[in-house]
Amino acid sequence: MSIWTRISEAIAALAKGESLSAVFERLRTPPERSVAFTIAVIALGAKMAKADGQVTRDEVTAFREVFHISAQDEAQAAKVFNLARQDVAGFEDYAARIKSMFGDETEPMCDLMEGLFHIAMADGEYHPNEDVFLSRVAEIFGFDPARFKSIRARFVPEAERDPYDVLGVPHGAPMAEIRKAWRQAVRDSHPDQMIARGLPEEAVKLAEKRMIAINRAWEEINQAA
Fold first, then answer.
1. What is the phi-psi region of residue 205: left when phi exceeds 0, alpha when psi lies from -120 to 50, beta otherwise?
2. Per-residue model confidence as pLDDT tens digits over 92-101
3. Which of 1, 33, 72, 177 keeps 20 to 30 A from 168, CA to CA?
């Protein structure tokens, strides 16, 4: 059974009236976490796409870039999109359930935020309403402002791109501490690690932008030292 069939079944349960909490409760543990993660990106991405007043073909294409959809799964994927559009649950409900499911594990939620930023930037513009939307999701996830700023800096060209923010270390930190943070970030971004914490294999492309930003930040700090 493909991930799209499993996702379709879960969203169909929502459409039939099963509570969001009940659905996510069944998806708390691997490998079903990958289903919950994908549902979250679908639902939050669709609701965020409307935050700037329109859903563009670029944003739909961006989702397909994050989640590779094989030819044989396209029909199921289309069904998932249609069911997600029918769901009336608010984005804050989805964000809260995801937070409850992952608890204190921040990395899976960081992965999710990066997927949403990828979709937000698909049309080449970061709309103020999208910033409000994503800021609220980050707040529900329990991210501090520095964590949110770090993720935003990886995706939004006009955002302040402080390499220390990207690596999550304070200015003036010893090089040994910065190097340790960089190496940990690289380890956390390995596809095997991302799959282990709940991402479907179809979504490991999310690591690409993160790795580029992480390595660029390390190079900038290292060259300036």
1. alpha
2. 887 888 888 7
3. 33
